[in-house]
Amino acid sequence: MASCSTTLQDREHILASLTKYNQHLTTIIQKTADDVIINPTEPTEDKFHKILSQLIPCLTECYQAIGARNSLEFYRNLNIESDEVSAVMKKMDGLTARYHEMLSKVDDVIQNEGPKDLRLSEIILIDVLTNEAFSFETILQQKKYTILVVLVTFNSIHEGASWLERTPTDYQLLSDTHKHIYKLLNMKRSYYKTWHSTAIHYYTEKLVNNAKLIKPLIHDDLEQTGGDVILDKSCNILYTHYSEATIDRPTAEELLHVVNSLN
Asked: Cross-referenced Pfam families, in alphabetical order (predicted)?
């Protein structure tokens, strides 16, 4: 743990890693953001993803330099009697605020229009394992279930099958490649939610603690937000939880409590 007794060599290592992180934030804010805001095309977004993703290894170096395993320890261990460290941390706070503002501006130019003249019950989904097509209404009206849990992905059948190999589940996985459900439920694409500093810290914590991060699928849309929805058999929406961040999901217990309260 870093402390007031930190050696000069350790302090220089801490300063170097924090400075590198600040420089990367500055690059994102000053250069790449304008390209995405002015010309939000797929190649430009790919370039943006590449530079955004480098924040995680940069922050990982900072964590390792001060011996932190989570964000709480990160800030606690930086409580060092050093004007230089204090100045770098103050700069980081300012850059992080500007970084969040930039992400919000990018969100403003992302197209999030929903499908016109289409009802939730009419949306056609493809079972990833069987390739069978179902209307959403048909899926919900299966009489053998009191409660039916289904997973919906915007990925293709092939990519969905690949995801199932890496993340086995007994639940049915349905493909909605046109994102009709996402758009009807107003689940928008968002750089702010998916690349917020809290998400960067979350993935950094995973790496520092030797967790293996799942690589995105080939045609994954990293900015597509999701959520959890409870519907009745007539496709009436009874409950919706919109994820405010990549890791923001209600627990199974919370969802069961909602279901039980509706009966």
From this structure: AhpC-TSA_2
What's the pTM value of the predicted model, to 2 decimals? 0.82
| Residue 8, CA distances (Å) to 15, 56, 62, 80, 236 in order | 10, 26, 16, 12, 63
CATH 1.20.58 fits 8-109, yes or no: yes
Contact between 103 and 195 (Cβ < 8 Å) = yes
Beta partners for 135?
A: 124
Give the pLDDT band of residue 198 (cuts 50, 70, 90): very high
Residue 122, CA atoms < 13 Å, CB-side half-sphere: 6
- Mean pLDDT, the chain, rounded, equals 85
CATH number of 120-187+226-262: 3.40.30.10
Measured between alpha carbons, how far is 255 from 261 in angstroms, rounded to an integer? 10
Q: Is the pLDDT of residue 71 over 70?
A: yes
E-strand ranges in 38-145 read: 124-127, 133-135
What are the φ and ψ backbone dihedral angles of 82, each rounded to 5 degrees?
Answer: -150, 120
